[in-house]
Design a protein that fits this description.
GO molecular function: glycosyltransferase activity
Strand order of the largest sheet: 3-2-1-4-5-6-7
Number of helices: 13
Radius of gyration: 21 Å
Domain Glycosyl transferase family: 168-332
CATH topology of the largest domain: Rossmann fold
Pfam family, one: Glycos_transf_1
Protein name: Glycosyl transferase family 1 domain-containing protein
CATH class of the largest domain: Alpha Beta
Order of helices and strands: EHEEHEHEHEHEEHEHHEHEHEEHHH
InterPro entries: Glyco_trans_1
Amino acid sequence: MKVLFTFYNPSGGMETLNRIRSKALIDKGIEAHLLYNFTGEGLRNIKDIRTIVTSDDESVRTLIQQENYDVIVVCSDINMLENISNSSYTGHLIYELQGLGPIEEAKLIVDNYSERILEHADAILYPQTLHLNQLMLSYFPNIPQFSFDDPLDTEHFGYHSYPRKSFPILGWIGRIQANKNWREFLTLGERLMQYCPDLFLWMFVDKTLHDPIEKAAYDLMVTNSPQLSTRLFLYSNIPHDTMADYLSIIGDSGGFLASTSILEGFGYAVAEAMLCRCPVLSTDSDGVRRFVAHNQTGKFYERGNIDEAVAEALSLMQDQNLRTQIIDNAQAHIKREFSTDLYVERFMNMKQHLDYKSPKKL
């Protein structure tokens, strides 16, 4: 069996997802390849997985014809879906949605793509996220749909012990763009410094993918804040393996990871922090509900309510019994519910269902 996963560029959560699930399938004896339209910093994370980078339609069609994939999963890229469908491909062509930004933008995208998805896709795949589920059932009631959790590398990515920092760290992972809601993170950091004057902020971003307008606003906000300009560190394109070290250090410092997103399809940053024993304070951005149960595996606050965010943050930092309980529960939850073995089992069940319902085209 041979599988191809495609996306625009190797960055962020999609790079993580494609790399983890490809490796998991390969470990089970299934050949998996990656196809990206454009190069990206995330290519450095990929090892021992055949990865093709091209945006040329003819090159893609040649690849499809040569490799004879049993399953191709196209994430988000409607033009790629159409190109592969028109290339005389005879395997199962699955259109995947992982996250489309704010709900208004997501509805607009799905509305614009719906006819082409119906024409070219054999099935739709998405994580167990309420807003995606509602959108897909509303727009595509008659096409096979599969919804299951994305995997984490629970065996190799996790907590590492380092000497404890002498100051607490507030962490954040994302892109400098509106949906990630970076302004709220910086505002929370400034407020928390009033209670924790030795607090530092660590932000992990991909500088090659920021929104220029948002980045200009970010630079202005940081420059105009005496606290942020001296206590904020911006890290770009940290290798994925090394992120486990940073998350472990943040957790052991007495700090936490803040997730301020407006809407998430899955939220790898949150899940990976929990796996590394770094507690999480998050907005209720839908996708993270799979990980965060308030005061059990993490903490929620109402987006925009900075007073509530500060109160929950201080509770997470000062109530050591609750903190330890949340950290232990979160790590166990991720290991139990999001393993690669579970993902491969569900992926193969999807393949078998499609084999039965819609055998390969002749």
